[in-house]
Design brief:
CATH superfamily of the largest domain: Fumarylacetoacetase-like, C-terminal domain
Number of domains: 2
Order of helices and strands: HEEEEEEHEEEEEHEEHHEEHEEHEEEE
CATH topology of the largest domain: Fumarylacetoacetate hydrolase, domain 2
Strand content: 35-45%
Bound molecules: manganese (II) ion
Oligomer: single chain
Radius of gyration: 18 Å
Length: 260
């Protein structure tokens, strides 16, 4: 799938040269010299689509994964990074989407993650109120150019090139909270070519979804449309062209991509 098809299939493209200023809530349309698509995701059981504002990701949120990345999970507060919204690759349920092996890397890794999507925002949200912001859930892959992430990290430079590149966020459709409930435990696994690589339980997350939202809201004002990749369990690893990744979270349909 080329870039144009990606946008047409996964994003609602604003027609002509009119764009609504959604991020500020201003309803009137403004003239622009070209259209920039608003990235949206299907909402299961609805004809509405979920508009994605920001993609936040939490790092090292499972102890065994933190250890395999060379850090001590007991002493580290949560930390976050972002992917650009147009890094999203929507993967329809029941399909195996072609996912392009990205440039510049020789060590391309999968990370299977629960994704919480927000329907409300705020600042300094207490943990016991944080889940009130959740609109629903889905699952996704935090695809990572591990060699570039490490190379930049070793030099104390931003690791953006390893994490925040085009198509780095394959993701499923949004499931409304009232259909799924909150995800506090349950199996999360990932297979490559049918062989289990990652297998853990969501209850092993160091920082729960509620705690992630609360912590994030201390650093950033959160808004409806923000989504949060909640971290990956241990045993991340590489894929090459031709590999098929399948990931699962109890209560959600599986997500599959083929590396091409
Ligand atoms: Mn991750």
């Amino acid at each position: 799938m080329d870039r144009r098809n990606f946008f047409q299939s996964s994003a609602l493209v604003t027609s002509g040269a009119l764009a609504a200023c959604a991020s500020t809530g201003i309803a009137n349309q403004v003239k622009t010299p070209f259209a920039v698509p608003q990235v949206t995701l299907p909402i299961v059981g609805s004809d509405e689509r979920f508009p994605v504002r920001r993609i936040y990701c939490i790092g090292r949120n499972y102890a065994a994964h933190a250890r395999e990345m060379g850090s001590d999970p007991t002493r580290e507060p949560p930390f976050f990074f972002q992917k650009p919204t147009d890094a999203i690759q929507f993967v329809p349920t029941g399909t195996v989407a072609n996912h392009p092996y990205p440039p510049l890397t020789k060590n391309y890794h999968y990370e299977a993650e629960l994704v919480a999507v927000l329907g409300k925002g705020g600042r300094d949200i207490p943990v016991d109120k944080a889940l009130d912001l959740v609109y629903g859930y889905t699952l996704g892959l935090d695809m990572t150019r591990r060699d570039l992430q490490r190379f930049m990290g070793d030099q104390k430079k931003p690791w953006e090139i390893g994490k925040s590149f085009d198509m780095s966020a394959p993701i499923g459709a949004v499931h409304k909270l009232e259909k799924t409930g909150h995800f506090k435990e349950g199996a999360i696994w990932l297979k490559v070519n049918g062989v289990t690589k990652q297998s853990a339980d969501l209850k092993q997350m160091i920082w729960s979804v509620a705690e992630q939202i609360s912590k994030l809201s201390e650093a950033f004002e959160l808004f409806p449309g923000d989504i949060i990749y909640s971290g990956t369990p241990e045993n991340v690893g590489p894929v090459v062209r031709g590999d098929v990744i399948e990931m699962h979270i109890d209560g959600l349909p599986n997500l599959s991509v083929k590396i091409v």
